[in-house]
Write a structure and sequence with these properties.
Layout lengths: L2 H5 L1 E3 L6 H10 L8 H12 L12 E7 L2 E10 L6 E9 L8 H13 L5 E7 L5 H9 L3 E11 L2 E9 L1
Parallel strand pairs: 4-5
Antiparallel strand pairs: 1-2, 2-3, 3-4, 5-7, 6-7
Helix pairs in contact: 2-3
């Protein structure tokens, strides 16, 4: 773990984090333009950052803060229609902070919080070359590829599904 990650704290996300979350998600340059509103919709539902202020209790969330700045965010929750399966829906670390251990802190926090409730954690990610680092990240954290669906997201963009058994 880096010195920066050791100095970081994990805290709940808040509706006031929305603009920072949007900025870092766009800056990651991995997500298509049509994916950003989906990420924000999940963030809004998780934190109540929507006009009704409603919080969806099926979403859990965390942000990692270092030097007073939000450096990454994650949202996860139980997979509907399953017993003990959870999905990691979104995890993003701002580009300038990637490799500092902030993503690891978020995954570790999620796993800590679902332990005892989750049997499996599922993660779906892209199969494009620019996602190679993302896939390696999950493998380093004990996630294993269980399925690949060719051309799922778009032609040439496979869906790669990882699972970790707790």
């Amino acid at each position: 773990m880096t010195t920066l990650a050791r100095a970081a704290t994990v805290r709940p996300l808040a509706p006031t984090d929305r603009s920072v979350v949007e900025g870092m998600t766009r800056a990651a340059r991995l997500f298509r333009a049509d994916e950003i509103p989906v990420a924000l919709e999940v963030f809004d539902a998780a934190t109540g950052a929507n006009p009704a202020g409603a919080i969806d209790p099926d979403y859990e969330h965390a942000g990692v803060v270092c030097d007073g700045c939000l450096r990454g965010w994650a949202v996860w929750g139980p997979t509907p229609g399953t017993l003990g399966t959870f999905d990691l829906y979104w995890i993003v670390v701002e580009p300038l902070s990637q490799g500092a251990g902030f993503g690891s802190l978020l995954v570790e926090e999620m796993e800590r919080r679902v332990r005892g409730r989750a049997r499996l954690i599922m993660v779906e990610t892209a199969g494009r070359d620019d996602y190679a680092g993302t896939r390696a990240f999950y493998q380093r954290h004990g996630y294993h590829v269980v399925a690949t669906i060719p051309d799922f997201y778009a032609p040439g963009d496979d869906r790669v599904t990882f699972v970790k058994t707790l």
